Amino acid sequence: MSEVSYDLVVIGGGPGGYVAAIRAAQLGMKVACVEKRGALGGTCLNVGCIPSKALLHSSELYEEALHGQKHGIVGRISLDLKAMLARKDDVVVNLTKGVEGLFKKNKVDYVIGSGRIATPGQVGVTTAEGKSLLLNTKRILIATGSETTPLPGITIDEKRIVSSTGALTLSEVPKKLVVIGAGVIGLELGSVWRRLGAEVTVVEFLDRITPTMDIEVSRQFQKMLGKQGIQFKLAMKVSGVKASNKEVVVTAEPVAGSKAEEFKADVALIAIGRRPFTQGLGLKEIGVATDEKGRVQVNVHFETNVKGIYAIGDVIAGPMLAHKAEEDGIAAVESMAGQAGHVNYNLVPSVVYTMPEVACVGKTEEQLKAEGTQYKVGKFPFLANSRARTMGMTDGFVKILADAKTDEVYGVHIIGPQAGTMIAEAAIAMEFRASPEDIARTCHSHPDLNEAIKEAALAVAGRAIHI
Ligand SMILES: Cc1cc2nc3c(=O)[nH]c(=O)nc-3n(C[C@H](O)[C@H](O)[C@H](O)COP(=O)(O)OP(=O)(O)OC[C@H]3O[C@@H](n4cnc5c(N)ncnc54)[C@H](O)[C@@H]3O)c2cc1C
């Protein structure tokens, strides 16, 4: 048994867990963080947000250079995939080591091993060498994240049939790639490999892509990806994925019924979603309640039904996003310290880092209609934004939805260049319950993409200047 007694032991060193551990240490707690992967940063830094964005950026530069003639950039361009993957790995290692450094700076004990809740006051740890430790603690925070949802009956070999993790390390560009699932992860990774030369087909069960997005935005998004060469097979139910040495064959049937179609490819990417990961934690034995989706149930203070055991991030309800996990982590430990920890799940921005990017915060038009809320819409196209013109990236628009009576902004949806960075302005405005007029009367720098937000805000009152 460990001699030390902790105020908090965090199980899982992802963006939820490591941020919670650091904040708890800042608040004066004695903290340990148990992580089994041998590197901090969780799914996000190791096999999620960071490596995917590194490849998205590299592949975007490659494609821009290939088609750089209109900018006066000419010459032969070729791809060194090995170097591109190595750069991505370097980015990952530097960031995960950076988190280790932050742990040292904040005096958080980093315990490498697999954690299991022995009792509400004790976490058992099995190290990679098979040694056992027992950590005594006042509180336990479950931050064990999520894993790829498997397709029933299909074995992921990470070679021909891959999850997002395998799709981040393909050693050659597949001639043909079938992506199963038209959600964020499938579209981002599909975009990476299309830019690098793969012929990409996306097979989706629903009749639309990115189902939680505002429909007008998601239709425009599909059109733009289609123009780039991604083929969509919507309303198709995958009934089989068979791999051989030579190829992989995906069989899918129209949801409405009729003949099955076969899609032959070099690689199939399964990207139908993610599910909470709680394996080996001992939740049942300790009596921690989970819901029908396997998510740990928590109250507003992120505490489970067992006193002293808390949970955050992908393993609980809410959007499975790194920044949401971080906010959960901070709110949970601030609550433990007697502060007013709170996360506004209505204002968690969500971004697809394709080209163009798609970003939104707040409600969609369909949600407002379903609630019966009277709303106004203001839209502004990037075609009329001078910065977008200088960049040659004029596809897309900003759309603002506001209450028809009170003028409060309820939703901002952006499809266009750097939408992911731009959405932060909207999120801040909405946290302060701003009106479109508040946004429109705020001086925006010129020439900038954010001027499209200002103009969309003006457009809510029918007084946009540049269109
Ligand atoms: C390809 C891909 C791209 C993504 N891109 C984005 C993006 O651009 N933006 C975004 O916001 N989100 C993105 N996500 C989602 C994001 O990665 C997750 O929402 C986020 O990592 C969740 O954080 P978490 O701390 O809850 O869990 P995780 O990051 O999953 O971390 C949990 C950690 O717990 C560890 N663990 C599990 N069980 C135990 C145990 N018993 N003992 C010890 N350790 C344990 C795991 O090894 C893991 O490291 C992406 C995900 C994927 C797969």
Structural class of the secondary elements?
alpha/beta
- State the total count of DSSP E strands: 22
Distinct small-molecule ligands in the complex: flavin-adenine dinucleotide
Mean pLDDT: 97
What is the terminal-to-terminal distance? 70 Å
Strand content: 25-35%
Spatial shape: globular
Query: Rg, please?
Result: 24 Å
Query: Are there runs of 5+ residues with pLDDT below 50, and where?
Result: none
Describe this protein's structure.
The N and C termini lie far apart (70 Å). This protein is of the alpha/beta class. 32% of the residues lie in helices and 25% in strands. Helix 3 packs antiparallel against helix 4 and helix 3 (49-66) packs parallel to helix 6. The chain binds flavin-adenine dinucleotide. Residues 11-17, 34-37, 42-44, 48-49, 52, 114-115, 143-146, 164, 185, 277, 280-281, 313-314, 320-323, 325, 353 line the site of flavin-adenine dinucleotide.
Spell out the key features of this protein:
alpha/beta; single chain; 32% helix; globular; 467 residues; 14 helices; 7-stranded mixed sheet
Task: Give a quick summary of the entry.
The protein is an alpha/beta fold and 467 residues long. It is 32% helix and 25% strand. Strands 1, 2, 3, 4, 5, 6 and 17 form a 7-stranded mixed β-sheet that branches. It has a 5-stranded parallel β-sheet with strand order 8-15-9-10-11.
